[in-house]
User: What shape does this take?
Amino acid sequence: MTSAAAIPILTYHQIAVAPQRGAPYRSLYVHPRAFARQMAVLSALGVQVLGMGQLLPYLRGQLRGRIVGLTFDDGYVNNLLNAAPVLKRYGFGATVYAVSARLGRDNNWDAAKGIASTPLMDAAQLRAWQDAGLEVGAHTRHHVSLTAVDAVQQHDEIVGARAELEAVLDRPVDHFCYPYGDFDAAVVQQAVMAGYQTATTTRRGRARAGDDLFRLRRVPVLRSTWLGLFVAKVFSGYEDGRDR
Assistant: This one.
C-alpha cells in the first residue's frame, strides 16, 4: 500500500462519455462507470479520499494516514452530475478548480484545439457542489497560460479568481491550480501573495509530506486508465519521478 508519506493527488477533468474516436483530448474524459469503479476500489481498501483543504494537514506532516487527494480541473457540470453522487455515496471529499469568469458558460479556451464545447458549473451549481460537502478552488478567471501574460494580468487572474469565487460561495477559497500546469517563480509568488494555501500543477508524481505547497505534483487519471493501472498509480511509485 501507499506509504504514509506518499500522498497521491488525483487529477480528473470530465466525468462523461468520451466523444468519438479521433476527437482532440479524448483522453481527458473518464466514463462515469469507470469513475464509480475507481472510487469503489478506494472505499473497499479503506482509503480516505480528501479535498485539498482536508489534505493540508497531511501535506504539512501534521497527520499521517492512508489518504488520497481528489481534484477536478475546470469545473464541468458533468462533475456535479456524475461524480458528486458517487463521492456522496462513499463520504469522500474533493476539490473542483473553477474558472471564475466562465461560470455557467463553457470551456472556450479549448475551442482553437477543436475540443467540444462543454458546460461549466454556474454559481448555483457550484453552491450545490459545496453544499454536498465538497470544495471549490480557483483556476484563474479565464483559464490563461500565466507565464504568457504580464504581472498585472497574472495578478488579475489569480487574485481576481479568488475574490469572484468567494463572492459567489460566501466561503474562503484557499486552493489554486495553474491552468495548463503553466507556472514559474513569479507566478508562484503571485499565488502565495494572493493568500492561497496550496497550488497544484500538472507535474506527475505523488506528493509527499513537506513538499512545496505551491508546486504540488498530481496523478492524472485518464480515459485509458484501466482499473489495474489506477491501482498502480495510487498505491505504487508508478507516477513518481516521471517529470523530474
